[in-house]
Amino acid sequence: xxxxQKKTISRRDFFKxxxxxxxxxxxxxxxxxxxxAVSASxxxxxxxxxxxxxxxxxxxxxxLGFGMMRLPSVGGRSAREGNEAIDQEMVNGLVxxxxxxxxxxxxxxxxxxxxxxxxxxxxALARHPRDRYFIxxxxxxxxxxxxxxxxxxxxxxxxxxxxxxxYIDYYLLHGIGxxxxxxxxxxxxxxxxVLDFLLEERAAGRIRHLGFSxxxxxxxxxxxxxxxxxxxxxxxxxxxxxxxxxxxxxxNPRNTDAEYLYNELAKRRIPAVIMEPLLGGRLSNVPDGxxxxxxQREPEQSVASWAFRFAGSFPDVLTVLSGMTRMEHxxxxxxxxxxxxxxxxxxxxxLQQAADRMMQFDTxxxxxxxxxxxxxxxxxxxxxxxxxxxxxxxxxxxxxxxxENYRRARRAYLIGYDRSVPKLRQASHCIGCNQxxxxxxxxxxxxxxLRRIDHFVERLKQDNR
Length: 465
What we know:
Structural class: alpha/beta
Shape: globular
Distance between the termini: 68 Å
Strand content: 5-15%
Helix content: 40-55%
Number of helices: 19
Order of helices and strands: HHHEEEEHEHEHEHHEHHEHHEHHEHHHHH
């Protein structure tokens, strides 16, 4: 294949590569550590975890990666919410179950779970032999106070301590392209010499693979790939799912379609780590008509499994991250990847049809990442946006009081709003300070959306016919 042919992987090329021979060439194979057992509930996987091989180091990485962003709290919710402590016993149980069933990639950050994720991850993993798992974490130096060389290096070393590790398998520059774009990237990593320091750490073996996670400004992504000969990126983390494949830029002009991101990595043979395969849960809570469409095609598959199969079917994907709070999430994802049944050409086209239909819904592209939080005025931004999306998907956003289902939809929205978001944390309390928007990976104009939702809610309240 000449260089011109290598530049872009078309949809048909993708499926040729994803055939049986291509998948084994890419390093896809079943786990050889023994057949996975079915869980006591009968909901566990019955096959073997699909593995991918890192082309540089030969690491055999599970196609399902455990994202430690949504760890359970003692109150049963995600520890990203409220002020509850992480339920360490439950985390240990999830990690044990994941390891037993072939998952060996665990992704965390100093910023996750209000700064508690790395410690909880370290406690859970340190109970197992170090060669059974790969740790991924990030230099999450978002705040200007952490942009100095000293503060950034201190964050890196604290990660090693909290993770109870002598080395980190996969280390990332976190959120490249967010906020201030190129200028911010240079201040966080280049001007202070931190990237040079990390390269030295990789040469010393304390970092085994060095990469970055990308959000936002495509100029930064393109620059870092243009400098691949200099930095030799070992992997790159991107957002990829069947909605963002062709529609990310249409959803938000400042985003980039996943098709472009993936192909740019693939032609350089840089393994891709996938985040947001479910778009923060949006692809597991799709409109009712899309649910019916997916269930008619595969009645036994979960809605979420379609998204995970899509992300995992690309041959240069190393692992697909999922933030799993509950055991049923873990078990469903294990069934999808134990082993993976790659999408056929027809199924790929079917999901693109589903994406086409989803684009008819004017949902807000919130992924519930909570980077916008905490709000200095106590507003629960993600809960407000996600409730709006949920009602939109369910047909409970009446455009006019003349709508046939107006009274039912009005009641469903208002009651659900009060149940989902305490009154003191609702959109009416937004003063438009805009401290949130610069941190949003999806570049949502959050104050504008909150004003729009508040006006909608007030209209519903006043029209009580």
